[in-house]
Amino acid sequence: MVCDELRVKERARKPLAEKFRIQRVSLDAALKPLATDVTSSGSRDPVRCALDIRSQRMAPIVNELHALRADRGLTCGVYDLAVGYAHMHVNLAEARAAGADSVRLSGEVQQGRASQESSL
C-alpha cells in the first residue's frame, strides 16, 4: 500500500483515503488525456506518462543539482534532497490533518527554542 511505502502515520491514513476518494474522479479525468500519449518507455499508462513528463521537466534542475554537488556547492546528494522534500510534504499533510492547533503549537515550541538559544 502506498501509505506503508510513504510511512504515513495511522491517524493520517483515513483523511488521506477520504481525500483520494473525493478527488479520484477529477484525477481520472486529468490523467485520461495522458493515456493517449506514449511514454519514452513505450507505455500508455497515464501514471507512467505523467511521471515521464514530470521527469523531463525536472531534468535540467536535477542536472544543475548534480553539477553543484560535483563542484562541492551542495553538501548532500540529490536523492537525499528528494527524500527530505517528500518528508517535508508528508509532515505538512499530517499537520493539516491534525488541525491548525498542532501547527500553531509547533510554531510556539520553535519560538520557545529560539528564545532559549538566543539567551545563551
Catalogue the unreliable spans. none
The overall number of domains is 1
Q: H/E element string? A: HHHHH
Classify the helix fraction into a percent range. over 70%
Computed CA radius of gyration, to the nearest angstrom: 20 Å
> In angstroms, what separates the terminal alpha carbons?
47 Å
Structural class: mainly alpha
Residue share in β-strands: under 5%
User: How does the overall form come out from the CA principal axes?
Assistant: flat
Concise description?
With 120 residues, the chain is mostly helical. The protein has helices at residues 2-5, 10-31, 46-70, 78-98, 100-118.
Polypeptide structure, described:
- With 120 residues, this protein is mostly helical.
- The chain has one domain.
- The protein is built from 5 helices and no strands.
- It has helices at 2-5, 10-31, 46-70, 78-98, 100-118.
- Helix 2 packs across helix 4.
- The longest helix is centred in the middle third of the chain and has 25 residues, at 46-70.
- The chain is flat.
- The model has no long low-confidence stretch (mean pLDDT 75).
Question: What's the helix and strand layout?
Answer:
Elements: H1 2-5, H2 10-31, H3 46-70, H4 78-98, H5 100-118
Helix pairs in contact: 2-4
